[in-house]
């Protein structure tokens, strides 16, 4: 059973609406009035029986934050669900899975290394691959204007998938 939701992103206004921050966007949608405290190299909160974590270590060091939280609460990797961007899926495609490949995602690599396991669940939110240019630049760019239009639908789909899969997941702003 999932006890910790980890929303991946980067801190700071410069990253707020970038592709790499889709995890933080989902957190803000699910928990818009949530009070967050600085702890575990991140922002942490509680929603009923779930702990919520937004690492502030920057993406490539997310595992440090996750490990600190795991150690404090005694969680195993199997009790974690990570919400993150995914280059390997087309924009707007979402996939919920446990374990599996990391697709070159440095945040997931860091979590695997620090958790010493890849058996955490993840909600992969497709951002597509760049047609031109580097992947590093692409993930740190804002969504295109067309993508921005459909972004609320993608975030709503993430919410639906999470609530359907984990019926006990406490959320707010559920749209019918």
Automatic annotation (TrEMBL):
The record marks 10 as: Discriminates between blocked and unblocked aminoacyl-tRNA. CDD domains: PTH (cd00462). It catalyses: an N-acyl-L-alpha-aminoacyl-tRNA + H2O = an N-acyl-L-amino acid + a tRNA + H(+). Its main location: cytoplasm. GO terms for biological process: protein quality control for misfolded or incompletely synthesized proteins; rescue of stalled ribosome. GO terms for molecular function: peptidyl-tRNA hydrolase activity; tRNA binding. The active site is at residue 20. It is found in: Cytoplasm. GO terms for cellular component: cytoplasm. Its EC number is 3.1.1.29. Hydrolyzes ribosome-free peptidyl-tRNAs (with 1 or more amino acids incorporated), which drop off the ribosome during protein synthesis, or as a result of ribosome stalling. NCBIfam families: pth. This is Peptidyl-tRNA hydrolase. It comes from Sphaerochaeta globosa (strain ATCC BAA-1886 / DSM 22777 / Buddy). The lineage of its organism: Bacteria, Pseudomonadati, Spirochaetota, Spirochaetia, Spirochaetales.
């Amino acid at each position: 059973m999932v006890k910790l939701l980890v929303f991946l992103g980067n801190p700071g206004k410069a990253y707020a609406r970038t592709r790499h921050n889709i995890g933080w966007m989902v957190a803000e949608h699910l928990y818009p009035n949530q009070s967050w405290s600085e702890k575990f190299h991140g922002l942490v909160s509680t929603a009923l029986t779930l702990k919520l974590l937004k690492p502030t270590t920057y993406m490539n060091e997310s595992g440090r934050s996750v490990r600190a939280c795991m150690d404090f609460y005694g969680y195993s990797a199997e009790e974690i669900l990570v919400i993150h961007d995914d280059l390997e899926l087309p924009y707007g495609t979402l996939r919920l899975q446990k374990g599996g490949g990391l697709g070159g995602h440095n945040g997931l690599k860091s979590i695997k290394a620090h958790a010493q396991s890849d058996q955490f669940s993840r909600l992969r939110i497709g951002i597509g691959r760049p047609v031109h240019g580097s992947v590093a630049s692409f993930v740190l760019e804002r969504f295109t204007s067309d993508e921005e239009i459909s972004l609320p639908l993608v975030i709503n789909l993430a919410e639906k998938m999470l609530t359907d899969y984990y019926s006990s997941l406490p959320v707010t702003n559920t749209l019918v």
